Target: Pectate lyase
Amino acid sequence: MEGTKANWLPIFVFVVASILPVLRANIAEFDEVWRRRAAEAYNRTLHAYEPDPLKVVMHFNKNVHRHINESGGVDMMMVNSTRRRLGKKYRGPCKVTNPIDACWRCDPNWHLDRFKLVDCSLGFGRKATGGKGGRIYVVADSSDDDILNPKPGTLRHAVIQEEPLWIIFKRSMVITLAQELIMTSDKTIDGRGVKVQIAHGAGITIQFVKNIIIHNMKIHNIVEKKGGIIRDSTTHCGLRTQSDGDGISIFGSQDIWIDHVSMTRCDDGLIDAIQGSTGITISNGHFTDHDHVRLSIRPCFSVPTTSTLATRKCRSRLLSTTLGEEMVQRMPRCRYGFFHVVNNDYTHWKMYAIGGSSHPTIISQGNRYIADHPYAKQVTKRECPESEWKHWTWVTDGDIFLNGAYFRASGDQDWARKHPEKTNDIKPASATLVVEMTKFAGRLDCKKKNPC
Model:
């Protein structure tokens, strides 16, 4: 046994050393601090790996069906769905339409126990606890004037603290970031109770960290920034290159939950998750773009390595989300890993909705796909010859296709039947309920002492 351990150690050191030059992102100077963070993040990816993703899929589907039963069954939800008036804001009594929201939204005292939100997460990001148990940090200043010495009370000052924090906001505000906002681990950014926007500046960077929750915000008009010396913790400043213009960039990070976030018009991607990022749930989002910008939502890439030690460890879920006007492609685009795309409403795309390369496994369940472009009917796109992708497992299960939309399935279509001990014959919610389940997608207008 001791000999075996001794043999693994040099291989592990080699692998970490081999990936460090690749895992640079916008880091201009890969100093000792960033090297340590990269190595720690790589190790967390190995430990965060969920070896049986179908267990997580079935856990989510089971919660969905429990919520449907508690809401009066499919017929009652269908009645409510047909009453929805598109383009009209709902003004009736509080109602919840999916299991995540059922956990907290209609409690008028939600503001007295913000940490309860943690108990509501589902999917691969369900382990994210953010700043639970830490201090409540109140952002009272919307400025971002000092990148090297952020002012106390600003969002930048909050996210660089090296302790768990639950970050809330004193009032409604628009925050224009002078440079990318680099977060440390164990943070929740909670925009409930006010209207918080990150807009007209840089975006949020989640790099080589863990345990992040971003909730109830609007992120829009994100642009590239030139970079420079930026403080990334209370004890370290680093030289950064130009940021890409992503709304949220997740790089080599683990246990991330993004919920009730509205996003539009980013120079690059809305959400970009790459390089070993794993354990991600994106839920209740509302994603649109009105300027025909090429958009990207890529929940997960694998850790690049020449060794089998770091295999394809990525697990991500996109659920109960509306992907709407002027969306072009990559919703998501996947490489390696396992992706569960469930109960989402795809109302527009100009090229394709779901794409991939490098052998990802994609399970599409209970989604509604509406093709709105005369020359873009296919939901899927593979970036390699058919002789290769025909072996990839891409499954459509219970999806609805309208206006000529179609999904090119491939690989093993009997994955559920072959694994009854994992699936237990539990299906996602019917795609006919997607309109109802996504009714309250995006940022919520929450007020204290009232249901959201």
